[in-house]
Design brief:
By secondary structure, the protein is α+β, with helices and mostly antiparallel strands. The chain contains 6 helices and 11 strands.
């Protein structure tokens, strides 16, 4: 990808501390009036980024990955997400950061990424559109090494009850993702998702959105209980197929019903003829209640 002519590049000197950004965004969300009607023409960049090995180990432990010679398929999201927060917490961002719900994600890994490589990270926003339940926006992340793009991610977020400029709706967050068939076979794994997984994942990801942290803060955002992070469920599902997916792959996920914490869920995986894997995370009590549908493969 190339930098759009109308985007201003802002370089960050180091990893941002996300707490103050969430706090300022929460204070601004409580004020009357919106933040704006268009996306900021800004691209945030960090150069010379190295992976902190203890953080990688903590992430692998929470999500279920092994430590190996390549970063887990979802780990580079940890590098792009802090820049997403900085962008979404800005005064010119049109949607309130508190309460944003991650509804879809596409990851493209172009090659295996060594945990010791030096990386450059870029983030910008695009596709601010209407949604049947409010408004949605895409945050785009790109990771490169030596001028070569090695990882790309598109995160689609929903602001329930918000408004977007007039124009075609973005649908359900899957306009750029062909939703894969839903595997319907027996469960491959039972997940007993603990009530504190939102706080544990927040500790490694920096995603301290209040919908994930405590029942009371989740209720304030319209949820009956705290919900699991979408990217934790996506990562935990990918970890179940570790070693069976090529280094260069695409991982599409659509987040359906939120996982209310604590929960008992089951993962179903199914390999298609071309070698890619279909994924579904569903409720133990109701197999028709889907939390995640995905596809990962070359």
């Amino acid at each position: 990808m190339t930098v759009a002519e109308d985007r201003k590049v802002t370089e960050l000197p180091g990893p941002p501390s996300l707490g103050p950004y969430y706090a300022s965004a929460a204070a601004r969300a409580a004020l009357p009036g919106g933040s704006g009607r268009s996306l900021p023409a800004t691209e945030l960049v960090r150069r010379g980024v190295t992976v902190e090995q203890r953080h990688l180990a903590d992430y692998a432990r929470v999500c279920g990955f092994r430590i190996g010679n390549a970063l887990p398929v979802t780990y580079p999201h940890m590098l792009t997400f802090p820049l997403q927060v900085v962008l979404m917490a800005g005064r010119s961002f049109p949607l309130p950061l508190p309460g944003l719900v991650h509804i879809a994600n596409r990851i493209t890994v172009h090659r295996a990424i060594s945990p010791t490589e030096t990386l450059d990270v870029r983030v910008w926003a695009e596709r601010f559109t209407r949604h049947p339940k409010g408004a949605q926006v895409d945050l785009i992340g790109e990771v490169s090494a030596g001028g070569e793009t090695v990882w790309e991610g598109r995160s689609t977020y929903l602001a329930r009850g918000a408004t977007a400029p007039d124009g075609p709706e973005g649908g359900d967050g899957t306009a750029d993702i062909a939703e894969p068939p839903v595997p319907t076979g027996p469960a491959n794994a039972l997940w007993r998702v603990p009530g504190d997984i939102g706080r544990r994942y927040a500790a490694v990801s920096g995603d301290v959105n209040p919908i994930h942290l405590h029942p009371l803060t989740a209720k304030a955002m319209g949820f009956p209980r705290a919900i699991a992070h979408g990217m934790w469920t996506a990562a935990h599902a990918a970890a179940a197929l570790e070693g069976r997916v090529p280094d260069a792959c695409t991982y599409d996920v659509v987040f359906r019903k939120p996982v209310l914490l604590p929960a008992r869920t089951e993962l179903v995986t199914e390999q298609a003829a071309g070698g890619a894997w279909g994924l579904a995370l569903r409720s133990v009590k109701d197999a028709h209640k889907l939390h995640l549908v995905g596809r990962i493969g070359g």
